[in-house]
Amino acid sequence: MLNRQGRPSAAGEAAVADHPTFTGNRALMIEEPLLFEVGRLDTTGVDVEAPGDVPSRLGDLERSDPIGLPGLSEPETMRHYVRLSQKNFGIDSGLFPLGSCTMKHNPRLNEKVARMAGFADAHPLQPVSTVPGALAVIERLAHYLKELTGMPAVAMTPKAGAHGELCGMMAIKNAIAARGEGAVRTVVLVPDSAHGTNPATAALLGFSVQSIPVRPDGTVDVATMRQALGPQVAAIMLTNPNTCGLFERDIVEIAEAVHAAGAYFYCDGANFNAIVGKVRPGDLGVDAMHINLHKTFSTPHGGGGPGAGPVVLSARLAPHVPLPFVLADRLIEQAADAPEGATPFGRMCAFQGQMGMFTRALTYMLSHGADGMRQASEDAVLSANYIRASLGDLMSLPFGDQPCMHEVLFDDAWLKDTGITTLDFAKAMIDEGYHPMTVYFPLVVHGAMLIEPTESESKASLDLFVMTLRDLALAAKRGDTERFAGAPYHAPRRRLDETRAARQPVLRWRAPEPVREQEAAE
Fold first, then answer.
1. Count of structural domains within the chain
2. Which residues constitute the domain of residue 398?
3. Based on the domain organization, do 200 and 153 belong to the same domain?
4. Which helix or strand (DSSP H or E) is residue 239 part of?
5. In 282-397, which ranges are continuous DSSP H helix?
6. Which tens digit of pLDDT belongs to each residue from 26-76?
7. Do residues 423 and 357 share a domain?
8. Which residue, 57, 121, 145, 464, has most beta carbons within 10 Å?
9. Do 37 and 160 belong to one domain?
10. What 3-state class would DSSP assign to 267?
11. Which residue range or ranges hold the Glycine dehydrogenase C-terminal domain (predicted)?
12. Regarding beta strands 325-327 and 330-332, do their DSSP bridges make them parallel or antiparallel, or are they unpaired?
C-alpha cells in the first residue's frame, strides 16, 4: 500500500510488521547486537606472537587481569560499525531541523583540503619553523573573521563554542581586574532569550547571574535592562539573533547603555550564520563574541570530535587575548614576547587550536567569497521564513506572525485539548524519517518547537518537510492520538525514557546471569 508520494503507508508498514523474521531483522534494517554479544573473549581477529622474556617497564601499572575485549574477524568488525552508522541520523542522511544548532551541509571540498599533506599530518610539537603554512592558514582565517565581524582581534585557541564563550568572559574578567574593579563588578546580565550555556559560563567564573525578561515580541526589554545596570554589573551576555529566532532591534541602544555603565557586551555568536555578510557585530557595539566554525563555516558538527570556537574581541579587550596567538608570521607563546601593552589573561589550552577545523573553515570562505557567504545567510533566513509562512496557519507562533531570522519558533498552544504533547509530535516525526526539531527550548515559550532549516536545503526538500509536518498537524487536530502516543513505531528502538537515561546512564555491559536449570525447566 503506497501513499501519495509512492511510499509505504502506515497500513503498509503495519502489514510488514505482521510478518516476523527468524533473525529479527526487517530486510536491510538489521538488528545489531553489541560487540560483547557477537565476539568471544578467547579469540582475536589478529594473530599476535607472544612477547619474549623481556622485563616490564610498567612497574605496578602492568595489567594483571585479561583485557576483556571480544575478538571479531575483520568482516564482522566492519559490518558491526557500518550497521551502527546506518542507525545514526546526520546531515548526510536528511534534513536536520534542530533549531539553535545550524546543522548545515559540510562540503566535501573542505574535507579534501583538510586531508592534504602538511595540514592533516601537522603535529603540535613540531618546531614552529617547520609549519609556516599552518601559521599562514591560521593568520588568514583570523583576518577574515576580523573582517566579517568588524573586530580588531581574535583568539583562535578555544576548542568549541562553550570554550570560546568561556574565553570571552575570561577576557572581560581580566579587563575588569586590570581596572581594579574585580571585587565590585560581580554581576552578569543574561536575557531569558539567551543560549543556555551563558548563565553557566558566568557562574563558572564566579559571577552572579541576573535574568532580564523578554518583551511580548520576544526581544530584550531594554527598560528593564537599564534598571539592572549599575557599578556592580560586569557584562551582559546576549545572543543576536536571539534564541527565539529574532533580531534584537535595540542592540545598539543596549550596547551604548552597557558601555555607559562601565560594563562589557558579550554577544553569543552561535547564530552568526544568519547575519554573515549582512551585519558586523563590532559595528553594533559588541566587545566579545565567539564563533562556532561548525555552525557558520561548515566544519563538522558534534560527535565528540575536534571543534573550534574562535573569539573576536573589541579594541577594549584586544590586549587581553589569551596565549598562544599568531602575530603576522610569528607564534607568540609567552607573555614576555607579546606586543607592548598586551596583558594576556593566560592560556585556554596548550596549543594553537584545531588545524583541521581552521583549514575547513578557510576553504569554505575562499570557495564562497564574500558574496557567497552573504547569500548563504540570506538563504538561511529565507528558508526559515518559508517554513514559518507554510505552517503558520496550523501551528501557533508565540510572538505573532512577524518575520523571523534563521530559525522559526512555534509553541504548543495549537495542541491544546488534543491530548498530544510537543514530545509526541517530535517522536512522530521520526516515523516519517525526520530528526525532530529542537523541543522545549527556549524556555520563554511553553512546549517550544524550534526549527532551523539552514541554507543547505532545496525548495523540494523544504516542501516535503512542510507537507509532512502539515500532515502530522492535521492528524493531531482531528484526534488521531494513536499515531502519536506510541511513536516512534518504525525506529530500531521505540520511545525511550530519556530522562532516566540521562540521570542513570548504564555505561558498562555486563553478561547476563546464566539461567539455572530449574528455572529453565519451569
1. 4
2. 370-496
3. yes
4. strand 233-239
5. 293-296, 355-391
6. 888 888 888 888 888 888 877 778 878 888 889 889 888 888 888 898 899
7. no
8. 145
9. no
10. strand
11. 376-471
12. antiparallel
